[in-house]
Design goal:
Number of strands: 4
Structural class: alpha+beta
Strand order of the largest sheet: 2-1-4-3
Oligomer: single chain
Strand content: 5-15%
Helix content: 55-70%
Order of helices and strands: EEHHHHHEHHE
Distance between the termini: 10 Å
Shape: globular
Radius of gyration: 18 Å
């Protein structure tokens, strides 16, 4: 049993645990990408005498989103410290916390807008869907495609050997990008079943 995604001629499938790990790892890569972006944005000096509103706005947005991300990470670390309630929880515990804490935070519209402003709004659609009996709209496909294209370099675990098994998600992201591209080009939904 697992999660299968199909769009016209393209399909990809994962076990339930595998799909959970994919979403968590993509979320962690997205946060790493944002950390790098924030460092670049906040390093840029603001020329206040010139009323550099654009730079001041983007820096303020970066600080606000970084605050939310830090809270997500803190909450995930707190949850990681608690004992699991069952044997099932032990297996998915390590990755689970970051995804749970992210999903609990994204309900705030302001947070979603900040993700969109930094070009990673697709993480909302990717993480906030059922594991079965659902679909990604063409709009979701576009957002997820853009997200995966942007953060894919952050999925590389072994840069010395691109063929390494450590890079399985980097390769799987290529297959996901192709499937969401199919949805965009053919204007068809991606079915989750």
């Amino acid at each position: 049993m697992g999660v299968d995604f199909t769009c016209d001629e393209k399909s990809i499938g994962f076990s339930y645990g595998g799909w959970h790990n994919v979403r968590c790892t993509i979320l962690e890569a997205t946060l790493a990408y944002l950390d790098q972006r924030f460092a670049e944005i906040l390093a840029k000096p603001v020329k206040e005498e010139e009323s550099d509103w654009e730079t001041m706005h983007i820096q303020s947005a970066a600080k606000n989103l970084q605050k939310h991300i830090n809270e997500i990470r803190e909450n995930a670390n707190k949850k990681k410290q608690t004992k699991p309630g069952s044997l099932f929880e032990i297996g998915i515990r390590e990755h689970n916390h970051i995804l749970d804490c992210f999903i609990n935070t994204i309900w705030e519209n302001y947070f979603i807008d900040l993700l969109i402003e930094f070009g990673v709004g697709g993480i909302y659609a990717l993480c906030n869907k059922s594991d079965c009996e659902g679909f990604y709209s063409v709009g979701n496909s576009y957002d997820i495609h853009e997200l995966l294209t942007t953060i894919r370099p952050f999925l590389l675990k072994n840069t010395e050997n691109l063929e390494s098994g450590d890079n399985w998600l980097y390769d799987a992201a290529g297959d996901l990008i192709d499937m969401f591209q199919e949805s965009i080009e053919k204007k068809k939904i991606v079915m989750i079943h």
